[in-house]
Design brief:
Layout (H helix, E strand, L loop, with lengths): L2 H7 L3 H17 L5 H13 L4 H5 L3 H22 L5 H14 L12 H8 L1 H9 L3 H22 L6 H26 L7 H18 L1 H6 L10 H6 L1
Helix pairs in contact: 3-5, 3-8, 5-7, 5-8, 5-9, 5-10, 6-9, 9-10, 10-11
Length: about 240
Amino acid sequence: MGSLGVLVKHPDDFYQLLKLKLASRHAEKKILSEPHLAFCFSMLHKVSCSFAFIIQQLDTELRKAVCIFYLVLRVLDTVEDDTSVATDVKVPILKDFYRHIYDCNWHFSCGTKNYKVLIDEFHHVSISFLELKKGYQEAIEDITKRMGAGMAKFICKEVETVDDYDEYCHYVAGLVGLGLSKLFHACGTEDLAPDSLSNLMGLFLQKTNIIRDYLEDINEIPKSRMFWPRDIICSV
């Protein structure tokens, strides 16, 4: 059933969705005078189907920080996912990417479509990152460093056990929850959430995605990496 069919079945949701859409457009227009941020928010809508509208509802300062945080991690993910990039090239980039976000002249090209545009024009993200307050920069750098190292580890290592599964999901999603908590704390709007809670939320979301994409990953040609633990496959 398409989006229109869903709205027909739930007409009361139409007003709230329209309100969200209009609020998002209004928020986006307020930052278009800043060219680097304009690029960031434009790309946010092109590379994120689900988070863009939510991020747009945040207050201005936090909205910028979370947008840039998302795009930085999206570039990391693009490098990790591109099977055309050799391992000996990919691993150093993942490990050092937390340094590259401070370098407006850093350049690398990979990915496809909008993801390629994002990484080709990453200097816009880097410039916007450098305009953030120190607390936001430190939070983004910390999570980027930890995530990049974790991704690099699993480029060279298969997910074989359930412990591997949990560790991989921690690196690619649990750390996102930790990072968001750090950003909200840096903004002064919230206390830091317990790391265990933020991590579990990320694990839940990532495992949902892995399970959803399991058949697609099996049938993909050329074969992509599999993140479903071999222990579980072999026990079935």
